[in-house]
Specification:
2 domains; 10 helices; six-stranded parallel sheet; Rossmann fold; SIR2/SIRT2 'Small Domain'; Sirtuin_cat_small_dom_sf; histone deacetylase activity, NAD-dependent; three-stranded antiparallel sheet; NAD-dependent protein deacetylase; single chain; metal-binding; alpha/beta
Length: 238
Amino acid sequence: MDAQIAKLKEWVDASDNIVFFGGAGVSTESGIPDFRSVDGLYNQQYKYPPETILSHTFFMAEPEEFFRFYRAKMLALDAQPNAAHRKLAEWERMGKCRAVVTQNIDGLHQKAGSEEVLELHGSVLRNYCMRCRKPYDVRDIAAGKGVPKCTCGGTIKPDVVLYEESLDSVTINKSVEYIANADILIIGGTSLAVYPAASLIDYYRGSKLVLVNKTSTPADRRADLVIHAPIGEVFSQL
């Protein structure tokens, strides 16, 4: 792996147009569970499967049960950025990293200092009334009980993309533009199993596609450099 990391460092040192595309594996090293690994949420037992609870239909039909799960399993407000988050923020300050495109909803990239963060699936930090659109802080949601209600009486919804909901078109278009024009595209901490987000890498036109993930992905054969290791462990050596 030393030779692979040396190659990645060489590429990074010579580039000022890096785009990072990340998934749940970027946050697991900060103590936030993912969904699909052996220890992930999909492999734990609940009254309903997580993918059912985190759907638009379930949210509308069973909001009480949705928020019980959401507060217990989806909010990790004490989590701190790890080496991967910090390195990406450092690269942005150095003028190397143009954008972070993430499937995560925890806000850790911003907490580490990254500014150009495109959140494909939204963020738990933003919440709004479905009736009047009044914004609410995540701490209001975390501290409450039952279904959070606005002063106008409307239900407050986290600004996250639930199953059955569409991704934000502006975020998608900006992500495509950054990826298409990137010199280096680093994909980290994702199995590339969630669509349509995973299909964004098809827009990359460069010759330095890097995959950093603990396990193999469907895109490994297309990559110019593959490192099978935890993303934080790799980035701490760059």
